[in-house]
Design a protein that fits this description.
The complex is a heterodimer of chains A (464) and B (1046). With 464 residues, chain A is mainly alpha-helical. Chain A folds into 2 domains: 3-368, no CATH class; 411-443. Chain A has 19 helices and 2 strands. The N and C termini of chain B lie far apart (75 Å). The chains are: A mainly alpha (464), B alpha/beta (1046).
Chain lengths: 464, 1046
């Protein structure tokens, strides 16, 4: 390894490890009960973001200067069990896809961090917010730069975990917790599918390393050692994972529900970064898509339907955050379509632009009334009803139907509930009843003591 | 006979549309009366209960809304620890409350007063049974006396116990059967000698064990003698143990589940229904009213619907086929829900209160908001009620299938799993209370043991009666008393000092300049600083609309909005127009504004569609620049934006103030006032503030408002007297009127001669960034310009110091900022997207002075006082002027104060909770997070430094006048007699104060005759974030303004 490579290696390492360091510091201090002041938390966060962002930019410049398009960073195996051909391989790559994405993620996180520093001032959960934020940041960098599918999965999990916990940030209220749980269950579904896909990939190719997998061609080139049907199988599973993460059809229902946390977390997680992660996964696995035309068509289909549904739903929402959530979905749908069509660079540019715009819009969401007022004043009258392309072309009965469709948020939650959740729960309740029947019969009396547990009364504030 | 017959039948014939409407209207009083948030007007949150007195009102609030009436006991105890409430305050409050009852002896436990005082001084804890058991067994409850008990008292108690036990042991635990029984387990098998050698800590433990045993025995015996154990002492803590399987619990659970389903649906529907133009697609058939729109929407075939709504389309079709009106549906559903007819009204009220934010907004949009883009059609709330009841029935039916009644199906868990009956638990809980009381009051076990069961009964009753709510009420009184005593002492001492100083100085001429601001508490510090900077100036306070009641439209604004108190409907319209010579240029700029407006609207709505979204998405990287710049450097970004603003800002403008037609109206030539009307306005204000002679060369009127970003409640920060608008135009209009020579001639006829060289200027004070704009300076006469420059310099210094005083409250501003840095800090706050506290608005308000400035000038009031100017010497004997001032001041300041009170004592219930997850819904209000009830009230961030005290008015007038005013003005009477506000009168000649108590004015006795004096205000606030005491500022007090002696 020559000097130049060493430089790249250390810079790349810094990009990945510094956010993890932040998690360690904030996490350990919380664990040990050390109270950090607001100032030190925000300073640490800023330092970490900068400490990661600057090396990332340096790498970009070095890559542009030298014309290198592929910089792998090997960290070796975390686990390796040769007998069963199992290994968890840490590897990060810097290429035309990951560098812009990681810079985007770091920049937006940096801005939102700076925003939150003041926005959450005096808030009880300040430390908790920044701990989850650092977890998210680390997850984002890891998954953006991941060089193996298992590394990507690791980052993906961190992002999912921190997102769900941030939705439930105001855990003293019921709804955030309920919605956080809902987000989490959709994420778990996506994760399970991701994991299966990754295993299948290893199984078919014996390899989860994107570099070797795609035959060391720089993104988006490369071909894969999979047959068309194998690619379809792996691709479908990963597409399901991406759909869950990016709230594509039929998982769109969780997106507006996720708007429970403080405004900045909604902005960065659902408006901009988290929601694009599914699209990013598809971009990363572009060669798999190319290997199967059926898969490409399915991707285009899901993307297109999501975009259309998203735009209908966004038109009907009357609160600003849900509306912006569905507007995001529309664009993510289009990005996915672009990926399906093979316009990878377009999709990448689209992700970058859309993420920035939506972050700004969401951060400004509470100032909506002010904006409307300003626009009305500038125009000098009530705002004109937006000239709606869709509305103008639909016959009125159809328009009503689509209104209902948008109002019910595409019926997606309902359908998922009645076709997936309900049968699932019913099945397990059935098992439970059977078990109770058996144990009662065996012990000849009510066998489950947990039925009779007294709940501890939580409220003791009212006194005699 | 006939009457009882119809009652017994209870037929539907009794109920017609009128009665349902009547219920609805009745219930609507209980709904929040805040309209669309764009116009935020402070008002008493419990306006509905203003007819009762304050203490009953807050209790009704507790019953109806389940919201806290006062701070919690814990919070009050914290205030006690911090010295904010003193024991003397508690004693006074209790004495006043108990009156003659305070000396009543309670079964040998001392006086009622002493008993209650002990209960207030020490925290009485109430624990759930399990916790109590644990604490007594191993948690140290029987090891140590409570920490806040005097060690001396502990020693006495232990000593008494030691004597008693030794005595008993010496007599062989024989003579008193029961006592020996109690002592035996405690002493165990220890011999007398061993007992004699017990250590001090052992004795402590033994004495506590003895005490606990005695308490338990006493309470149990009393309970056996009582037929029904009282449930009022152990409240929530033990109640939750009873969540058994009774039918009541079951129906509660059903109700909860059903309401959850219904609420989820209604939040979404109401939000779409009320939408003011945010969604690109309006709700179809909205013009058919709430019920009509609901029917249309839910009859559209859907591929899937939740199980509980499966029969809904059928029901709706049926209702429509029968041509039922909404009120008939309401009655129908009430019947089908199986509710007794006499409970209908109650049930209607409860149904509306369930989502009271949304229901209230529907009512407001239906009845009181014709100015909004899309008011709700009439009958909307009735429709809402019909839908709600219908859904409730469906949801309850569904919930029944999901949650089978456990008492019907599964066997109730056997009783032996609950070894402790309810009575045991209740007893233990009460015994624990007595156990704590005994420690606080140093009751020895022996005395307690010696009590008869009647005595025990009395004691228990006594403790029961003085419930937590009662204690919190007394705490509140004490809390208010501390501040009141300090305030009244300060006023009395300061006004006396001021009078002495004034008498020793000679009077000469008029002040250098005079400044009139709004009575707003935020202007208090500004006025004080201005007087410090230029002691030769005078300041006055008048309600910030300056008697100019108008619909106003600025040159760059689209609509007229009222700039006057909410209860007045303006007749006059005033427009700001470009000056005649700049019409062309102004037209160009307005075109540019229009263009920019259209583009930003396109971007705004387009970015949410497919194609527009693609374009904006691809170009979205450009958003990085504003994003990064605005978040990281808000101040600089604002400046850059400002400098570009020159291309679109309106040119020089003037107010279209004078009309040519007979009657006022909205058309161009009937906009404005007649000279006669203008003169009326000018006279009114000058009389109100007592400025009828000694006019300075320059008189500045300052309206006020506030600008901040990312703040849905922005309008709440503006001038309350302008309906949440900005008062600049009012000041500008007033100055123009007062400068008009024709008007001055008319004014002179009322005896107010404004000298020719006097010039009025209108201005605008932005209380968030402390900027001050002056209007129409081009017309300023040459001779006055040098003086204006001086005044401007003084004001610039004053506003910087004002900013310095303000920033001490912000934790994010470090101590020791210079006035200039402080000004920069507040400017940045106003431009910062991420700032959740642009300013603290009216937080900490607690006082309102109505009277001459001379007695409050130079008194440091810590930005907590509304200051209205009034000069009794020019008022008539009946107090006509003070009456009209109070007609505005008491309801407005009282309303602001009470809204802050309630949002502070219960930020979640009465306030709108934390601002951080707020989500603007329907462009009408805020929800918390993705979906919730609409949240009226103030956010936790707005009230976090507020002290919930009822406002104290100090009015410079006589008790006769005040009695007359109270008697003749219903709004004032309700607030004053109901004790929603506190009232004191000041005689400025003698500095005597009398305090209103239960219908009469009682002379107030000074509690101290000391008032700190400091050289400047800055001395006071230099390094302190909390509330500050009163003080006299030498810089102002020593140099009495020349005009004051008038």
């Amino acid at each position: 390894m020559n000097d130049f490579d060493m430089w790249l290696y250390w810079l790349g390492l810094a990009v990945v490890t510094i956010p993890c360091g932040l998690v360690a510091i904030l996490g350990l201090s919380a664990l040990l009960g050390i109270t950090l002041s607001e100032t030190s938390i925000s300073r640490l966060t800023q330092a970490a973001v900068l400490g990661s962002l600057l090396p990332a930019i340096s790498i970009l410049i070095l890559m542009l200067a030298t014309g290198r398009r592929f910089v792998p960073i090997e960290l070796g195996n975390w686990v390796s069990i040769p007998e069963v051909h199992f290994h968890f391989h840490w590897k990060f790559i810097f290429d035309r896809l990951s560098v812009p994405f990681v810079i985007l993620a770091l920049m937006l996180c940096g801005v939102v961090g700076a925003f939150t520093r003041r926005y959450l001032h005096r808030e009880e959960g300040y430390h908790r917010f920044f701990l989850l934020y650092s977890l998210f940041l680390a997850g984002m960098t890891i998954s953006a730069l991941a060089g193996t599918i298992e590394t990507l999965f690791f980052g993906w999990e961190l992002v999912g975990l921190s997102s769900a916990l941030l939705v439930a940030y105001f855990h003293e209220r019921e709804l955030p917790v309920r919605n956080g749980q809902r987000v989490w269950s959709v994420y778990r579904l996506a994760d399970a599918s991701f994991l299966l896909g990754a295993l299948l990939m290893h199984h078919f190719a014996g390899e989860g390393d994107f570099g070797t997998f795609f035959e060391n061609a720089a993104w988006p080139g490369g071909s894969i050692p999979l047959s068309q049907s194998q690619a379809l199988q792996v691709g479908l599973l990963l597409l399901l994972a991406a759909a869950g993460k990016s709230a594509l059809v039929p998982f769109s229902g969780w997106l507006p529900r996720a708007m429970e946390g403080p405004t900045p977390s909604s902005a960065v997680f659902y408006g901009s970064l988290s929601v694009h992660l599914g699209a990013y996964l598809l971009l990363r696995l572009a060669p798999i898509l190319e290997a199967s035309w059926q898969l490409q068509w399915i991707v285009i289909g899901i993307g297109g339907i999501s975009a259309f549904f998203g735009s209908v739903m966004s038109r009907v929402q009357s609160d600003v955050k849900s509306s912006l959530a569905y507007a995001s979905l529309t664009q993510v749908g289009i990005i996915v379509t672009e990926i399906g069509m093979g316009f990878y660079y377009l999709a990448l540019v689209h992700i970058l632009g859309h993420a920035c715009l939506r972050t700004l819009q969401l951060l400004r969401a509470p100032t909506l009334l002010n904006d409307y007022h300003a626009m009305e004043n500038a125009i000098g009258m009530r705002l004109p009803d937006s000239t709606d392309w869709l509305a103008a072309r639909l016959p009125s009965s159809l328009k009503r139907w689509w209104y209902r469709f948008g109002y019910e948020r595409g019926f997606m939650d309902l359908i998922l509930d009645s076709w997936v959740v309900h049968p699932f729960v019913a099945a397990f309740q059935l098992f439970d009843r059977q078990e109770r029947r058996w144990t009662n019969w065996l012990s000849t009396e009510p066998s489950r003591e947990s039925d009779n547990i007294e709940h501890h009364p939580e409220s003791t504030e009212r006194v005699a | 006979m006939v009457k009882s017959h119809s009652e017994a039948n209870g037929t539907l014939a009794n109920l017609d549309e009128r009665s349902v409407k009547h219920w609805l209207e009745h219930a609507s009083h209980l709904l929040p009366s805040q309209g669309p948030i764009k116009v935020f007007v402070h008002h008493n949150t419990l306006h509905a209960f203003e007819d009762s007195n304050f203490d009953d009102g807050v209790l009704q609030g507790l019953q109806v809304y389940g919201c806290e009436p006062y701070f919690s006991e814990d919070r009050f105890r914290k205030e006690m620890k911090a010295g904010r409430i003193q024991v003397a305050d508690l004693e006074q409050a209790l004495l006043e409350e108990l009156g003659d009852e305070s000396d009543r002896l309670i079964a040998g436990f001392g006086t009622r007063f002493a008993l209650q005082l002990a209960m207030m001084k020490h925290p009485l804890r109430s624990l759930p049974y399990r916790e109590l058991e644990w604490i007594m067994a191993e948690g140290g409850g029987l090891q140590e006396y409570f920490a806040d008990i005097d060690p001396q008292a502990v020693r006495r108690c232990v000593e008494a116990t030691r004597k008693e036990i030794l005595k008993q042991l010496e007599s062989g635990l024989q003579n008193d059967g029961e006592l020996s029984e109690l002592l035996r387990p405690i002493v165990g098998s220890s011999t007398l000698d061993r007992v004699r050698n017990w250590s001090e800590s052992k004795w402590k433990k033994v004495s506590l064990e003895f005490l606990w045993a005695v308490c338990n025995r006493g309470v149990q015996r009393t309970f056996v003698s009582r037929s029904t154990p009282s449930r009022s002492i152990p409240s929530r803590a033990t109640d939750s143990f009873d969540q058994g399987t009774t039918d009541l619990e079951y129906s509660k659970q059903l109700d909860f589940e059903a309401n959850r389903l219904v609420n989820d649906l209604l939040i979404r529907f109401s939000s779409c229904y009320l939408d003011q133009g945010f969604a690109a697609w309006p709700m179809p058939d909205r013009e058919n009213g709430f019920f009509g729109a609901f029917c249309s929407l839910y009859q559209i075939p859907a591929p899937s619907s939740p199980a509980w709504l499966e029969s809904l389309p059928k029901e709706l079709t049926q209702i429509q086929a029968q041509h039922k009106t909404t009120w008939e549906v309401v009655i129908d559903e009430l019947q089908r829900l199986g509710i007794d007819q006499q409970d209908y009204e109650h049930h209607v009220t409860q149904s509306l209160l369930e989502l009271r934010g949304w229901a209230g907004m529907i009512w407001q949009m239906e009845t009181a908001s014709p100015w909004t883009p899309k008011p709700a059609p009439p009958g909307s709330l009735m429709g809402y009620l019909a839908v709600r009841l219908l859904l409730k029935r469906l949801a309850t039916e569904y919930a029944k299938t999901m949650l089978p009644n456990p008492s019907a199906g599964q066997p109730i868990p056997s009783k032996d799993l609950y070894p402790n009956s309810e009575q045991t638990r209740t007893c233990a809980s009460i015994a624990f209370t007595i156990f704590q009381m005994a420690q606080f009051r140093s009751w020895t076990p022996r005395t307690l043991f010696g009590l008869s069961s009647t005595d025990w009964s009395i004691l228990l009753q006594e403790i029961e009666k003085f419930s937590s709510l009662q204690r919190r009420r007394i705490f509140q009184l004490a809390y208010e008393r501390r501040y009141r005593v300090q305030a009244l002492d300060a006023v009395s001492i300061h006004s006396a000092n001021q009078r002495l100083r004034r008498n020793s100085q000679t009077k000469s001429g008029s002040a250098k300049f005079q400044v009139i601001t709004c009575i707003d508490d935020r202007e208090e510090s500004f006025r004080r600083h201005l007087e410090e900077v230029e002691p030769a100036c005078e300041t006055y306070g008048a309600a910030g609309f300056f008697a100019v009641v108008m619909y106003y439209r600025g040159a760059a604004e689209a609509h007229f909005r009222p700039l006057c108190p909410i209860n007045i409907v303006p007749k006059h319209y005033v427009c700001e127009e470009p000056v005649f010579s700049a019409e062309l240029e102004s037209g160009k700029r307005s075109q540019r504004r229009k263009w920019i407006g259209r583009v930003s609207h396109q971007v705004h709505s387009g970015s949410r569609t497919i194609l527009g979204g693609v374009v904006t998405g691809l170009l979205g990287t450009l958003a990085t620049f504003p994003l990064v710049a605005r978040v990281l450097a808000p101040h600089i970004t604002a400046r850059i934006r400002d400098s570009f603003g020159g291309f679109i800002r309106p040119t020089a403008t003037e107010l279209h103030l004078e009309r040519t037609t007979e009657l006022p109206g909205a058309e161009w030539d009937s906009q404005g006032y007649s000279t006669q009307e203008m003169a009326g306005i000018v006279v009114r204000i000058l009389q109100d503030i007592g400025l009828v002679q000694n006019f300075s060369r320059l008189v500045l009127f300052l309206g006020h408002g506030s600008s901040s970003l990312n703040n849905p409640h922005e309008s709440a920060y503006n001038c309350g007297a302008c309906s949440g608008g900005r008062g600049g135009p009012n000041a500008r209009a007033f100055a123009s009127m007062a400068n008009d020579p024709r008007v001055r001639d008319l004014v002179a006829q009322s005896g107010i001669v404004i000298p020719n060289e006097t010039w009025f200027i209108g201005g605008y004070h932005n209380t968030c960034n402390d900027h001050i704009d002056y209007h129409d300076l081009d017309r300023l006469p040459w001779q006055a310009r040098p003086l204006f420059r001086e005044m401007q310099a003084n004001i610039d210094e004053a506003r910087a110091r004002n900013a310095q005083e303000r920033v001490r409250r912000f934790e994010s501003a470090r101590f020791g900022l210079s006035p200039a840095d402080a000004l920069r800090h507040v400017e940045e706050r106003a431009e910062d997207l991420s700032q959740a506290r642009p300013e603290y608005n009216h937080a900490t308000n607690a006082l309102c002075f109505v009277g001459r400035r001379q007695w409050s000038r130079g008194l440091f009031l810590d930005r907590r006082a509304f200051l209205a100017s009034y000069d009794p010497s020019i008022d008539n004997a009946k107090g006509k002027i003070v009456e009209r001032i109070l007609q505005a001041a008491i309801p407005v300041c009282g309303g602001i104060n009470l809204e802050y009170y309630f949002s502070t004592v219960d930020p979640e219930g009465y306030g709108c909770g934390s601002k951080l997850p707020h989500n603007i819904a329907s462009l009408a209000g805020v929800m918390t997070g993705a979906a919730s009830d609409l949240r009226p009230g103030l956010s936790a961030q707005m009230v976090e430094i507020h002290e919930p005290l009822r406002i104290l008015f100090v009015v410079e007038t006589t008790s006769d006048i005040m009695h007359r005013i109270i008697a003749e003005n219903a709004a004032i009477r309700a607030l004053v007699e109901g004790e929603w506000v506190q009232l004191a009168l000041l005689d400025s000649e003698t500095s005597q104060i009398s305090l209103y108590r239960k219908g009469a004015f009682e002379p107030y006795r000074l509690q101290s005759n000391q008032l700190n004096s400091v050289p400047t205000s800055a001395e006071m606030y230099r390094s302190e974030r909390g509330h500050l005491p009163f003080a006299s500022i030498d810089a102002v007090s020593n140099s009495i303004s020349v005009g004051d002696a008038s």
